[in-house]
Amino acid sequence: MSVKASLGVIIGNRDFFPDRLVAEARVDILALFEKLNLKPIMLEDTDSKLGGVETFGEARKCAELFARHRDEISGVLVVLPNFGDEKGVAETLHLAGLNVPVLIQAYPDDLNKLDVARRRDSWCGKISVCNNLYQFGFKYTLTTKHVVHPSDPTFEADLLNFVAVCRVVKGLKKVRIGAVGARPGAFNTVRYSEKILQRNGISVTTVDLSEILGRANRLTKDDAVVKAHLEKIHAYTPIGKTPDEAMIQIAKLDVVLNQFMAENELDATAIQCWTSLQQNYGCNVCTSMSIMSENMLPSACEVDVTGTLSMYAMQLASGSPSALVDWNNNYADDDEKCVLFHCGNWAKSFLPDIEISTAPILGTSVGVENTYGALAGRTPASPLTYGRISTDDPNGKIKAYIGEGYLTNDELNTFGNRAVAQIPNLQGLMQYVCRNGFEHHVVMNASKTAGILQEALGNYMGWEVYNHI
C-alpha cells in the first residue's frame, strides 16, 4: 500500500471569473499532493490558460494526457477555484474514458471578497458540474463540506479517503481469487455465483484439493523449498507443542499453496480447510492462511469465496490485513457485545499472543492429532470495521453490509482465534443479517473504513450496500 497513488487533476475555469484563481489553485493542489505523497497528472500551466480546463480543445488536451497515463491513474480530482465550465469537466472525463472514481472539490468564497476581481461562485458551479456529470452518467464523490479550501483538514481527510476508495474500486475490478477444493458438504451457506462475480470483474480459479495434496505429498523434508518454508513459519509464529512431523506437513502444504497462487497470479484464496485435509493429509492449513493474510494475500476458510472477497475489499480500504470470523456467541447478557471466533487462521496482526496449536472442536471428529496448524490467540482492543459481500443469486446481484464498532478487552475464556466485539444496535444488525440471508461468516478489520467501503461498493461498483449506523 506504500506505492504512490496517481490522480488525474482537472482545474475548472470560466472566462468571466478571475484567471489568477486557477493559478493559485494549482499551487495549492501541488503543495497538498506533495504533503500526502500523491502524484498529480495534470496539464502544465503552458498547455492551456494557466493549466485550467474550459474549452472543448482544452478538455481534449487534458483527456489525451489522462489517456497516456491510463494504467497509472486510479481516480480524478476536479478542482473548482471559480464557477468552472461544467461542460469542460464532463467532456474531459468523457473523452478520456478512464472509468475511475471522481472527487469534486470547490473553493469557498470570502465574504470580504465578493467583488468582480475576487468572486468565485464555486458553490453554484459545483452544483452545475455535478449536474452535467449526472447527465453524462458519471459516478462521482462529494467532499464533506460543499465548498472547502484545500488547506482545510476536512479536505485532506476527504482526499485520503478518496484515494482509498480508488484503491478498492481498482482492486475489485481485477481481483483474482483461488478456490481450493470443494466447500464442506454441510455448508450451503458459502455457496455463491461465479457468473455474477465475473460480470463485476472478479475472476475465480478453481483447483481440486486432491491436486494440492498430491503435490504436497511428493515433497520431502529434505527438499530445499520445504526447509525454506519451514524456516519462514518458525520466524512467523511460536510452534507451541506442535511435533516436527506435523510442522513438515504444514510446510509442504505451504509450499504448494504458494506455488498455486504464483502460477495463477492470484490475489486471494478460499480453501477447503476441513475435513478432507485432516483425514487425508493430517494437519490444518490455518498457519499458511494466516501468513498469506498477513502478507496482504487474504485467505478464507471453508471455500468462502465471497468471504475472501470481503477480506480483500476491507484490506484495500484500510491498508491492513483482514480476518474472516464467525458471528459466534452472545457475550453474557450484553445486547451490544458478541464473541467472534474461528479455529485459527487470523492474520498475525490480530494475534499478539500467536502460537501454533490444534483445533479442539474439529478434533472431536477427525482426531486432535490431525489438527496441528490451527493458531491460538486472543485479539486485543482496537477499532473495528466489519462487513460482508455476498452474491444474491436468485436476484442476480451482489449485496453487502458494513458497519463500525470496537473490539474490547473483555474477559473471554476459550480457545482458538477469538475476540469480543461491541457494536451499536447489535440486535438490529443480527435481524438484518438473518432477514436478508447473509452468511454466518463476517469479516473484521482493525480500522474505521465503513464510509470508504460504502462509497466504493455502493456508488462505484453499483452493489446494494447497507451501512449499519
From TrEMBL:
GO cellular component, one term: cytoplasm
Annotated GO MF terms: L-fucose isomerase activity
Keywords: Carbohydrate metabolism, Isomerase
GO biological process: fucose metabolic process
Organism superkingdom: Bacteria
InterPro entries with a match to the protein in the record: Fuc_isomerase_C, Fucose_isomerase_N/cen_sf
Domain L-fucose isomerase C-terminal stretches: 340-466
Pfam families: Fucose_iso_C
Name under which the protein is recorded: L-fucose isomerase-like protein
Protein's organism: Mucilaginibacter yixingensis
